[in-house]
Amino acid sequence: MNILFIHDAFPAQFGRLALELVRRRGWTCRFLVQSLSSCPTPTPEMLETLEIRQIPLAAEHRSSAGVPWPQIHGHFLEQCQTVVDAVRSSQSPRPDLVVAHGGRGAPALFLREALDCPVVVYCEYYFATHRRDISYRIDLPPAEPASFFPRCINAPTLAALVDCDAGYSATAWQRETFPLRFQHKIKVYFDGIDTALYSPGRSSRRIGGVTIPDDVRVVTFVSRGLESIRGFDLFMKVAQRIATARSDVVFVVAGGEEIHYGWDKLHTGQPSFKQWVLDQDTYDPSRFFFLGRILPEQLADVFRMSDLHIYLTAPFVLSWSMLNAMASGCVVLASDVGPVLEVIEPGVNGLVEPLFDTDRLVKTALQVLDDPGSYAPLAAAARCAVVDRYSLETCIPPLGDFLERVAGGAR
Amino acid sequence: MAQDPLHVLWIEPGFPGRLGGVADWLTRLRGYRSWFYCHTTGPRSHWPGSVGRGLEVQTFGVGGAARDPAVAWTRTLERGLCYAYGCWEVLDKRRPRPIDLIVGRSAGLGSSLFAPVYWPAAPVVSYLDYYFAPHQHDLADEAGPDTPPSYYSWRRSMGAIDLLDLEQASLGWTSTAWQRGLYPAEYQPDIEVFHDGIDTSLFMESSWRARGTGPRVIGGRAIAPGTRVVSFVARTLDRLRGFDRFFALACKLLAARPDVICVAAGDPIVRRGLDVLFHNRDYFAHLKATQPAVDLDRLWMLGSVAPATVAEVLAASDLHVAPGRSYPVARSLLEAMASGCVVLASDTPPHRDLLTPGRDSLLVDGRDQDALYEAAVKVLADRATYRPLGEAAAAVVNEHYSRAVRMPKLAERFTRLVEAHEARR
After folding, report:
1. In the prediction, which pLDDT does A262 show?
2. A73 touching B, CB under 8 A?
3. What is the C-alpha R_g of chain A?
C-alpha cells in the first residue's frame, strides 16, 4: 500500500508509525511536511527510509512572533492551497490512502480536489471553551484571547472531520474531547511506545559533567515545553518543598523554554514561562538540572535514574513522556485528570493527586522517596501496562489493519 | 404551549436583515424585549414598526480585516471573527440584560460566535442560510474548465463559520428542508426546519387582481389598463437570482409584445461575494452593454425599494418570474405568491421544496430561454386560465408561510428551548 502522510512537522505523530509500517508491512510511506521537527528530531533511518517532501513555509509562518489568533485559519487555508498544489504537481504515484493530522497541524482540506483516495485524519484534540486544556489554568492571570480563541480554533478540525472517511485518536480521552456527533467516525488506536528504548536498567547517573551519587534521590520532570498546561510552575512548588524536606534529592528537568500551548506569555508578560516561574522563588541551583530539549536516548537515561517522575498536566493530550517514564519503570506521580487516569490505575501502576493540591503532592512524593522499595511494584506494573497496552508491538498491528480497512473502503 | 415573553439578543450583520422581521413580530405580538445588534442598518423606511417600542437596534463597529472593502478568500473567517469580536465589544460595553435567548445569523460574516463570552447563560439559536458544496448549486453548476482551482478551495473553506456556529448553538435553524440537506449529515439532526414566514398583511391579493380590473400603481407611476406586467424582485439583481435570465426574457417579451412592461426591483450592484465575477459591479449595466438594445421605457428598473413598493410591484404583476439558480428560495417568491401572482420559476431543488408545479406555479428549466419565453407568453396571453395558479399560491402562503401562522410556532419553540436550558442548569 502507498500512504501519503500530511503533517506540518516531521516526524511528529507519523514518523515512527510510518517507519514501522514500512518495516512490518512493506508499505510505501511518503510525507508532505512543512518542517523537520527538533523535538523529536527525525532519526537517520527515517530520513533514509521515508520519502519526505518539504513544502516551504510562507514568510509569515516562520515568524517567531506567531500568527495572531484571528488570522490562524487564513494561514491554515493558505497552507492547504500550497499542499494541494504540491500534490497536483507531484510526479509520485497516486496514494491509496492519505493520513493527515485532523487539525491545523495538517493543511489537507483541499486534497479532494486532487486525490480521490480515502482520507484518514488523526484526531489529536478538540479545544474546549472551559475546564480543559488552555482554559483550565484559571488560577493564572487572565489572558485576553483566552475567551475567544477556543471558540474559533477548532474550525480546521471540524472541516477535517466533515471531510474525512475515518479518524483515529491515540486515547479514548482524546476521542471524547470531540463533539459527540463525530465520535462514531473516530476509532482509538495508540501509535506505540518504543519499549526497547524506554526500558528499566542501569543509568549513567551523569547529567552534563556532573555525576549524581548513588545515595542521592532523583526526581524527574519532562515536558516538550516548560509551560503552565503541563504544570511546570506547580512542579517547581512541589520540588521546592521536597528540597526543603530532604537534602538528598536533586531535580532533573527536561524540556525547552518554548510555549506550545496557551497564553503563558500573556499570563506572565514574559517570553519565558520557565524564567517567570524561577523568578517567583529562590531555588538552589545545585539541586536543579535543567537539560533543555534532549534526544530520546538521553531521555531514556534520565528515566532510568529517576526515583520519582512527576507529571502534572492539565486535562489535555497525554504526554508520551509519561508513558515513556512508565515503560522505563519509573514510579509516576501524576495529576488526577482524565487523560492520566485512562492509563494510570492509582495505587496499582502509578500515583495520582489533585493537580493544585501541593500539600498532597508533596506528601505523596516524600513517601515514595522515603521508601522506594514499597513502591517498586508500582514501577513494575507501570512497565507491564505499557508493554501490554501501549508498546509498538501491541499497537502497530491493529493500527495498520485499520488503515488498510479504510484504504479498502471499509472503516 | 406557553408563548411567554422573552428577552432576546438578536445578532446579524445587517438590520433588518432576515431576523429583523422575526424580532419585530415577536416584540409586537408576544411582548418580547429585543436587542438587535448589527453592524449596518438599512434605510429607516425598511425598519419594522417595533423599533424603539421594545426592539432596540444597536450597531457595532468592526476592526481589522472587516474594515477592508474586500479580503482574500482565505481571510473570510478572519473577517467574520472581526464582526463577532466587534459585537462582543459593544455587548460588553452596553451590557444588555437579562438575556433569555441569543439568536444569531452569521450570513457569512460572523455573528453570535462570541456573544456567549459576554452572556454564557443563555441558549444560542443559529440561523443558517447556506452550506457550500464545492462543485454544486448556485453558480458552481456553471463553472467552466477555466475556473481557477482556488475557486473550489474557497468553496470548501466557506463552511467554517457555520460549523463553529453549529457547535456553539443549542439549536440550528434554517428555513427549508433543502437548506438543511446541504449541511453535513452529522449536523442535520440538530438543525430544525422552520420557515419564518412573510408578512401577509403587506403582501396580499390586490383588489385589482380580485376584480380583474382597476387602477395599478407602482412607485407613483400608473399602469395603463390592458398592460401586462412582468415582475422580478431580488435584493440585488444578480445571476444567483437569475437576473440575466429575466433580462433576456424581458428583451424578448418587450420586442414581441407592445403591451408588456417588465419591472425589476433590487439593487443593481451585486452584493453577494458568491458571484465572484460581478461582485460589487453593476450587473444591469453589464447586461445592457452586452445584449441587444432593449426598450428601456418599458423596462422599469426601480432599484432597491421599500417593502411597500415591492408590494405594489407584486400587486400589479401579471407574471412573476423567479429564474434563479439553485440557491435558498428568495423571500420575494413567497411574497409574490402571497400577492396572488402567477409564478414562473426555474425548476430547481429549492423551488421544488416549496412549489407544486401546475398547481401553484409553473416550473421550467431556467437555463432554457425558449422554455421561459414560451411559458411567459402563454400566461400573458391567457390570464384567466392561469389565474387559479395565483389563487392557489396565495392560499399556500396563507396556510403555511404567513407570519401569523409561523411565528406562534416559533415562539413556542423558543419558549421550549429556554425552559429546557433552564431545567438543565
Report:
1. 84
2. yes
3. 21
pTM for the model stands at: 0.94
Q: Residue A208 corresponds to which cell in the numbers above?
A: 552534563
Distances (CA, A) of A356 to A127, A334, A361, B76, B375: 21, 11, 9, 41, 76
Query: B67, B73, B77: best mutation site toward chain A, by most A Cβ within 10 Å?
Result: B77
Mean pLDDT score of chain A, rounded to an integer?
94
C-alpha cell belonging to residue B312: 405594489
Q: What angle do CA A350, A354, A359 make, to 5 degrees?
A: 100
**Confidence check on the interface: ipTM exceeds 0.90, yes or no:** yes
Residue type, B109: L
Chain Cα centroid distance, residue A167: 18
Rounded Cα gap, residues A201 and A380, in angstroms = 12
* Amino acid at position B320, single letter: H
CB B5 within 8 A of CB B23: no
CB pairs under 8 A between A and B: 90
Is there a contact between A248 and A216 (Cβ–Cβ < 8 Å)? yes
Taking the C-alpha atoms of residue B333 and residue A278, their distance in angstroms, rounded to an integer, is: 68
pLDDT in tens, B278-288: 999 999 999 99
The span from the CA of B354 to the CA of B357, in Å, is 10
Continuous H helices in A164-251: 172-177, 180-183, 232-245
Cell numbers that stand for B414 in this block: 423558543
Longest dimension (CA), chain B: 68
Do the chains contact at A70 and B82, CB–CB below 8 Å? yes
Can you tell me the mean pLDDT for B217-236? 95
pLDDT of residue A60: 52
Chain B hits for A88, CB-CB cut-off 8 Å, are 149
Q: Which three cell numbers stand for residue A318?
A: 497525554
Predicted confidence at residue B213, as pLDDT, reads 83
Contacting residues for B93 by C-beta, under 8 A, at least 6 apart:
none
CB B45 within 8 A of CB B71: no
Cβ pair B19, B103 in contact under 8 A: yes
**Rounded to whole angstroms, how far apart are CA atoms A180 and A183?**
5
